[in-house]
Amino acid sequence: MILSVHFLFGAAVGGALNNPTLGLPIALASHYMLDSLPHREYSIDNVENISVVGWHKAVIDLFKVAFDFFAGLVVLILLLPNSASLPWLILFGFLACVPDGLSFLHFLTKKNNLLTKHLNFHKRIHIHQVKEETSWGLGIIFQVLTVISSVVFLAIL
Ligand SMILES: [Zn+2]
After folding, report:
1. What does the pLDDT read at residue 95?
2. How far is CA 63 from CA 42, 43, 55, 66, 122, in A?
3. Distance, CA of 55 to CA of 51 (rounded, Å)
4. How far is C-alpha 95 from the geometric centre of its chain's CA atoms?
5. Distance 87 CA to ligand 1 centre (A)
6. Where are the alpha helices (DSSP H) in the chain?
7. Is 85 exposed, middle or buried (0-12, 13-18, 19+ CB in 10 A)?
8. What is the pLDDT of residues 2-11, one digit of tens each?
9. If you measure from the C-alpha of residue 127 to the centroid of ligand 1, how many angstroms do you get, rounded to a whole number?
């Protein structure tokens, strides 16, 4: 799923637990749970092949990723600008995005065994190994519903 969905869901789940000791690992684990749902996302082919194509060709994809991440952060800050728990919610949201960051590190190096094992696990958790097997409609609906439920939940925290 896209990063802003992971970010908002991780913040909502972590915040709901009201206990950082539980919230931090659960926010991280929420990434894999969401990725197991059918979803589609924008292409980041040049990021996935950055070690071959180089940084200059991946710039547009990296901007998409950065915009996506910061969109989740901005929505959270706009929702709860005065919340005392905002720093924790941002941390939960950040942790929920970490698995994709680990995949990015793999795309850069391709030689680290731990990162390779993580990427294989990360890919295996997806319901469809080939993302195109999920229709755009279904792939977007799950993400829209996740964002709506996360935003509603965050608003009543
Ligand atoms: Zn992922």
Report:
1. 98
2. 12, 12, 12, 5, 22
3. 8
4. 9
5. 23
6. 3-17, 20-35, 45-48, 50-53, 55-79, 86-109, 113-124, 136-155
7. middle
8. 999 999 999 9
9. 12
Q: Are 25 and 91 in contact, with CB atoms under 8 Å apart?
A: no
Ligand 1 center to 97 CA (angstroms): 8
The two three-digit tokens of residue 93, written as one number? 């949201």
The tokens of 53 are what? 């194509």
Total of domains in the chain: 1
Residue matched to tokens 């939960």: 92
Residue written as token pair 């970490």: 98
What six digits make up the tokens of 75? 């929505």
Q: Residue 32 C-alpha to ligand 1 middle, in angstroms?
A: 7
Going by C-alpha positions, the residue among 139, 130, 131 that lies closest to residue 39 is 139
- The pLDDT tens digits for 27-69 are 999 999 999 999 999 999 999 999 899 999 999 999 999 999 9
Quote the domain boundaries for residue 145.
Answer: 3-155
- Residue keyed to tokens 């800050």: 77
Distance 101 CA to ligand 1 centre (A): 9
Q: Which pair of structure tokens corresponds to residue 128?
A: 């469809």
